[in-house]
Write a structure and sequence with these properties.
alpha/beta
Length: 91
């Protein structure tokens, strides 16, 4: 979490898509999501979680997540999702 924030803060070129795990050893869950969304305002953050509840998904979407994926998921699912992002408007 800390290294992601540092990389985004120091970067000249921000990513179009951020894949973020809900629980990281050094993060505070949805607060990290909010921070990353603020650092990458024109990008999309996809939150991945094995601890997903409807409340977590709703809170993540309210904090700016583009999509919440529940683990386990197929790589084809995330590949297709990221591929479709080029077709839609940005947040």
């Amino acid at each position: 979490g800390k290294s992601a924030v540092s990389a985004l803060t120091d970067s000249q070129a921000l990513p179009d898509v951020v894949l973020l795990d809900y629980r990281l050893p050094d993060s505070d869950d949805l607060n990290l999501l909010s921070r990353i969304v603020s650092l990458v305002p024109s990008g999309r953050v996809i939150l991945m979680t094995a601890f997903g509840t409807p409340e977590v998904a709703e809170a993540a979407l309210e904090r700016g997540a583009f999509k919440v994926l529940h683990k386990p998921f197929e790589m084809q699912e995330i590949t297709a999702l990221v591929g479709r992002l080029d077709d839609g408007p940005r947040n």
